[in-house]
Amino acid sequence: MRDSDNELRRRVREGDREAFAQLYEDFAGPVYNHGLRLTGDWSTAEDIMSETFLAAWRNRAKVEEDGGTLLPWLLGIATHKADNARRSIRRRQLFLARQPQPAPMEDFAPQAAGRLDDVRRLRAVQASLDRLRRHEREVLALCVWSGLDYRQTAQALGVSVGTVRSRLSRARKKLARLAEENMEPPTARGEMTSAAAIATVPARKELT
User: How far is the C-alpha of 3 from the C-alpha of 109, rounded, in Å?
Assistant: First the structure.
């Protein structure tokens, strides 16, 4: 029998390792996906997931016993870790840009084409998200992709519900403008650009 949200909170707070294992089983995937969407890097997302649960264990005493699912708490930690990771990635990219280009190597692996398509899609989304301010990008990732409502997103980021609403509204307007300005090249099959696709996703409703 699985614990209720508040029972899981209580057990995590008390340092119950089995409860923490359940927490990892339930939310490792969403935390990883959140890190991937914010950084655009698979390896970095894995690091973010590991660091998030390590930080959660170290800070388990701060968990309140009443408050429902712990996902907003975990995604709040992951958001902070992703922000640090993005800065590290940016520094690494600047360093690599100054280095001589290596000789190209042909890859005959059958999965290479699919992998490249995944990378292109991820980079297209990142190109759109990079046009946003950090706070707007974080709210968009939590509300649209991670499925948190306004209250949970506010809890994850430590801001008010009104702030979440305004940041999400600004982010959606900017993405809609990017789509209108054709900032991204159209696809061969007439698919939506990443900016347009993100902008058309309906906003989450606040739970009462």
Answer: 45
Contact 148, 72 (CB under 8 A): yes
| pLDDT tens per residue across all 208 residues of the chain | 567 889 999 999 999 999 999 999 999 999 999 998 888 888 889 999 999 999 999 999 999 888 889 999 999 999 999 988 877 766 655 655 666 766 555 554 545 445 555 556 666 666 767 788 889 989 988 998 888 999 999 999 999 999 999 999 998 888 888 766 654 444 444 444 555 444 444 444 444 3
Kindly give, in sequence order, each residue whose CB lies less than 8 Å from that of residue 199, ignoring residues fewer than 6 positions away.
172, 175, 176, 178, 179
Q: Report if residue 65 sits inside a domain.
A: yes
Residue 175's nearest CA partner among 191, 195, 200, 194 is 195
Q: Which residue has the tokens 């190109």?
A: 127
Query: Is the residue at 104 inside a domain?
Result: no
| CA–CA gap between residue 54 and residue 49 (Å, rounded) | 9
Residues 87 and 140 in one domain: no
